[in-house]
Amino acid sequence: MQSVTFKIRAAIIGAGAGTVALILAGLAGPRMFGREQTIAYVLLFAILCGILSWASARRSIAAIAPSLDRVTARLRAAAHGDLQTPVVAQLRRDLPDVALAMDSLFSQVRSNLENIHVLAMFDPVTGLPNRMSFCRQVEQLLAEKGGDDPAALFFLDLDGFKAINDTLGHAAGDQLLARVAGRLRDIMMAQVGAGMGEAVVGRLAGDEFTLFFPAMPNRAAAERIARAIQFAFGERFQLDDQSLDIGVSIGVAYYPEHGNTLTALLRAADIAMYRAKNDGRGRFEIFSNALALEEAGKADMERDLRTALQRGEFLLQFQPQVDVGQDRAIVAEALVRWAHPERDVVLPGTFVPAAEENGVIVDLGDWIMNQVCETATRWARQGLDQRLAINISTRELSQLDFFDRLRASMERHGTPATAIELEITESLAMEMDARLIEQLRSLQGIGVRITIDDFGTGYSNLTRLRDLPIDRVKIDRSLVRDIVTSAEARTICSAIIALLQGLGLDVVIEGVESQGQLDILRVTGCTVFQGFHLAYPANELSYLARFGGGYEPVALEV
């Protein structure tokens, strides 16, 4: 087909050359010859030029036509993935520039494809296989295993990595991850050299790493590897001019005992790792039937909590914060309870930690938020001058739209901002980022009060405390428990109260359970208290009967 095309091109070139020769001869002929002679000479000259031009063009084109056909064929092969076959020698001889350009093009495409493969299969920070690559390799090893020969999967999570990332920056965090990857490679190679067979190490995500050993002779061998990992992390990591300590929590799952698929092994090892982290970090845990049962219990709890939300089994009780100087309640803290159909009323300490872990706390928090806003609106319209306080969890604040949902609930119910108080824990207050601080400051600006709860149970930075948008601080019950019998406890509590009041913050003492505690605390200059000595949590009707000044709950008119 290409040859036919080239012959047509040669004919066109010849015809064009003859036409040009005819025109030129026609212009010049009459001056040199008679009319009849001019026509004859012109035609003869045009035909001769056309034939010579056609022959010359056909010869030149015919000489490179096979090479051009080979160029077309080679490019077609490259389009179908053949980037390795070299350009033929004839093409290099006939069209050297084209051959050189094709070599350069194929080399560049091969290099780009290799880079794409590396980016798709390997983590750019550590150079380890990424999640997809690790999973592919392990699944291949599992498919190749014969029978039930044991294997082991190790799931690692760095302890304290977030703090390093936040304080030293992401560049330092990436350097640390690269150092960690290096130590894990060394451990893997040492174990392979000891006869553990081909192993795979990878970075799943963030500060999570995994190792898979397809030949694990027994449980003792897995424990030795886990201890080797811990020993390797016992040596400090050197980053430029800084020396850092970082621990690791390890979960171990066995094949086929804990699962015969990679998905099952990853889940089992992940559960074991979280148990190791929750039990103190810097340790390893092997998956067990007890952990499996516990995890199943968590799944049942999550299902029951979601069912309870759908059935409306949750209710609110209110406990007052009493200003003994004015002899009246100034704040009612809203406390959630679960009216379980098969048990007594369930207190939050039983189900809230589970709700925070499985994420149900977000939906439960939305329900509490709506109930509190609706109640606060009714109380405000009745003229009851008391704020309603809501406890906000870390999980709720981690939701980017939390503040939008809070404002929407207040707007929907027409809730005055001055009727709402948000309580956050001391540890959460110390860890809040700039976005959260700005959002709280915005709420504070429209009248919402912000309180730190459980003060004294965490680690507070006084400079940061001064700069936070905080109105009140609730001193935890652990600081006042022994003040009647311990002079040291009285000294510590008095110093903390004086310090907070010196920062211009209102102070609330919670956990007051006796008149003796109340009398001692009043001497410190504190007048607002909360605890069983003053009142137990009660439903709205009972609360208003005692602390509502004669007001009774009345439904809002819609």
Number of H/I helices: 20
DSSP strand content = 15-25%
The span between the termini is: 83 Å
Structural class: alpha/beta
The parts where pLDDT drops under 50 for at least 5 residues are none
Write the layout of secondary structure elements.
Layout: H1 2-32, H2 35-79, H3 89-94, H4 96-121, H5 131-144, E1 151-159, H6 161-168, H7 170-196, E2 200-205, E3 208-213, H8 219-234, E4 237-239, E5 242-244, E6 247-255, H9 262-278, E7 284-286, H10 289-311, E8 314-323, E9 328-339, E10 345-346, H11 348-358, H12 360-381, E11 387-391, H13 394-397, H14 402-413, E12 420-425, H15 426-431, H16 434-445, E13 449-455, H17 462-467, E14 472-475, H18 487-502, E15 506-510, H19 515-523, E16 528-530, H20 540-547
Parallel strand pairs: 6-7, 9-11, 11-12, 12-13, 13-14, 14-15, 15-16
Antiparallel strand pairs: 1-3, 1-6, 2-3, 4-5, 8-9, 8-16, 9-10
Helix pairs in contact: 1-2, 6-7, 7-8, 10-11, 10-12, 11-12, 12-14
What does this structure look like?
The chain has 558 residues and is α/β, with parallel strands linked by helices. It has 20 helices and 16 strands. The strands form 3 sheets. It has an 8-stranded mixed barrel with strand order 8-9-11-12-13-14-15-16, surrounded by 4 helices. Strands 2-3-1-6-7 form a 5-stranded mixed sheet, sandwiched between helices. Helix 7 runs antiparallel to helix 8 and helix 10 (289-311) crosses helix 11 (348-358). The longest helix has 45 residues, at 35-79.
